């Protein structure tokens, strides 16, 4: 039977547990969202009310947070461990953390959230069976939020899809003739380029490549590409391979999604760029089947996909209810004109009751622009 979390009490003991778990969450953040395909995990070891060891997991194949924290503590006999994720009890690329905690003589473990991974779960039970006092659920919401892409992908077996658009106040992302550079201010664009670092892949449609010739890389405040380890996979959906193979987006770390309608003539030059050309089934409009694309990306360890546009591609993702989160940059500009590109194309619903609603909204001012983020309510 699971022991309930300790509630705040008169002695302030609950506050202490909260304090140590929050420190573990802060440590987990040192992974900067780039531990994918593994989750970010933090751990602190506490004895007599003081932290004696700290650790964070920094990426697949590297030591787990618990093992680093135990090593940092040296002697952890009789100590309490605070971990942001249920300790694993399987032999992966590294040994099971449950055994490390048991062997170190830890007597109490607090973990924030259960591990949904079928191989790694069951750690709490294993620790209990070894006589360790186990508490789960402390800061669970924060821990889930910190690794939301990872939890989503584990639970849904596809990447979490984030729709990003940089739009005018009248909901446009380009003029009628495709001019869109730039709608939002420099700082907002910098923020958008930096946010690419937090996802595993960035996707655009063929016409965005043709109009904008974007790089789609994650970049710092000086517009310099981050280290390759922080770069998302760059994905282009282009059924017939009509985009120019010399476009900036192509090369190592790029995936061109095509259908069997691509001509051998078009395919050959792409192969010389280092771009991975992958054939997908067609949907009813003879375009790339988005569910098949998401399944392929998931099989490549992509847990989060940022769809940057354009209008047609965003419309397809929304119409197929494949968008999970929205990042809308909003500029105080009115593009006007009935033929300017709407931020989101597609069919949309006929009844307002079927409109897409967002929850968990945050609003950030970026100079004169706004960044509105929210989770799609299902
Ligand atoms: N302000 C902003 O945030 C942004 C603005 N833009 C602007 O948007 C404009 C481009 O948008 P838009 O013209 O709508 O074109 P898109 O970039 O959305 O590309 C659309 C094309 O993608 C291909 N495609 C393949 N599979 C699919 C699918 N399943 N669903 C949808 N499309 C698919 C299709 O071409 P095919 O059939 O040949 O495969 C389709 O015509 C440009 O002017 C650009 O500057 C773009 C991005 C962001
Ligand atoms: N126009 C527009 C954006 N456009 C998006 O940025 C892409 C260019 O990326 P890159 O070449 O990597 O800098 C472009 O293709 C489109 O997806 N973004 C914004 O934040 N604000 C803007 O006003």
Characterization of this structure:
By secondary structure, the protein is an alpha/beta fold. The chain contains 11 helices and 16 strands. It has helices at residues 13-28, 65-73, 97-104, 123-129, 140-146, 148-156, 186-195, 206-212, 264-271, 290-299, 311-319; strands at 42-47, 50-56, 80-83, 108-111, 133-136, 160-168, 172-174, 201-205, 233-237, 254-258, 276-279, 304-309, 325-331, 341-342, 358-366, 369-376. The longest helix is centred in the N-terminal third of the chain and has 16 residues, at 13-28. It binds NADPH dihydro-nicotinamide-adenine-dinucleotide phosphate (NDP) and the ligand Nc1c(N[C@@H]2O[C@H](COP(=O)(O)O)[C@@H](O)[C@H]2O)[nH]c(=O)[nH]c1=O.
